[in-house]
Hints:
Layout: H1 3-8, H2 12-33, H3 38-46, H4 65-76, H5 80-99, H6 104-116, E1 120-123, E2 141-143, E3 146-153, E4 164-170, E5 180-186, E6 190-196, E7 210-218, H7 227-268, H8 277-304, H9 308-312, H10 314-342, H11 344-347, H12 356-362, H13 371-382
Parallel strand pairs: 1-4
Antiparallel strand pairs: 2-3, 3-7, 4-5, 6-7
Helix pairs in contact: 2-3, 2-4, 4-5, 4-7, 5-7, 7-8, 7-10, 8-10, 10-13
Amino acid sequence: MTAASKITAMTLTDRAKRAANVAAEFADNVDVEGRFPSEGMDALKAERLMGIMIRPDFGGEGANLTEVADICAILGQACASTAMTYAMHQIQIASLADYAIGSNWHEEFQKRICAEQLLIASATSEAGIGGNLRNSICAIEVEGDTARLTKDAIVISYGAHADATMVTSRRHPDAAHSDQVATIFLKDQYTLEQTSVWDTLGMRGTCSDGFIFKAEAPKEQILPRPFAEIAAQSMLAVSHLLWGALWYGIAADATARAQSFVKAAARKSPGQVPPGALRLAEASSLLQLVKSNVVAGLKQFAACKGDGDALNAMSFSVAMNNVKIGTSQTILTIINHCMLICGIAGYKNGTPFSLGRHLRDAHSAQLMISNDRILGNTSTMLLVNKQDTSLLG
Length: 393
Ligand SMILES: Cc1cc2nc3c(=O)[nH]c(=O)nc-3n(C[C@H](O)[C@H](O)[C@H](O)COP(=O)(O)OP(=O)(O)OC[C@H]3O[C@@H](n4cnc5c(N)ncnc54)[C@H](O)[C@@H]3O)c2cc1C
């Protein structure tokens, strides 16, 4: 048995928990220094968790999205920056695994991801476009067999640490803003000229600096399917579900800290219910709401997977948008409850009940594709789409 096969013989959950233990140890330092969570990411690579969604005949494990979401939730409880880096990487893998079928270059690349545990970044946001995934200003230019692209990418998480980046652009210089393609560029095929520094309130370890991204590569690296299809059927839903899972993880860890605080208070005054106990019960109920939202979304995604019509349906988009809105808003209420329970011990850094990092990381959720933008999109669909009221799924 090789070292790699010894690891993959263990459950994904056990491997994720081992990596999460490492990530948790360095989470505060990653946050304070605003540095890439290299220990957590190296641990995920050592556990061979980077390519698990890829087909087994390409070296992956054929894991489904629910299994990956659970890993994101486990990591979210340890270090949100590690969890977000892992989630964003998996969003690119989901697009590659399902929307580059039959493309020799992309199939060989998937084999490399598994063999070398490569990390893939994403450059969709662009100056002048903001977080509107379905629009690009930059255009890829193909000359003979070569594709060239320059993008003013306002945010590329872990851009300087990735082995490759998936970049959206217009299909050609005369194409409409929404006529997009996605291209994989390997790190030795692009240069990054830094234009902004990621010194933020939270999610500091994602190192989401801005860059002028300049690349040149063989044109076969452009994904064969239109980006409109990849975004509608995979990227938007997978993003909302994996982000929702790790945001749930942040709130779950905050609730666990608040629970330990209440338990310690109960031990100090036997026979008396600590004042935070009622609020903890409220936080627990809200946490279950977030979990149910993510789990229901994952079930709906699994039921629709492979069915283009179901994935393109407005009801599916509305449901996935609602997972994002619901989880991103509710985690803030939960962590705030936990802060009230723990008081100064939660507000202060460096205590077993500290919640500052959780609260700051959680504040990114509403902005990561602006909730107002998503609500605007859902409201347009609700003008014509009938609400799904069935409990049968
Ligand atoms: C932790 C983190 C990591 C990220 N990593 C990446 C990455 O790796 N790659 C990447 O490409 N991007 C990344 N992003 C960027 C992200 O996906 C969004 O593109 C970005 O957060 C949006 O920036 P913005 O708020 O300035 O722009 P906008 O989305 O343009 O929003 C600006 C403001 O305008 C309002 N607004 C804009 N449009 C509308 C509308 N239609 N309806 C209502 N209100 C509207 C919003 O409410 C908001 O107040 C990351 C973001 C975060 C927080």
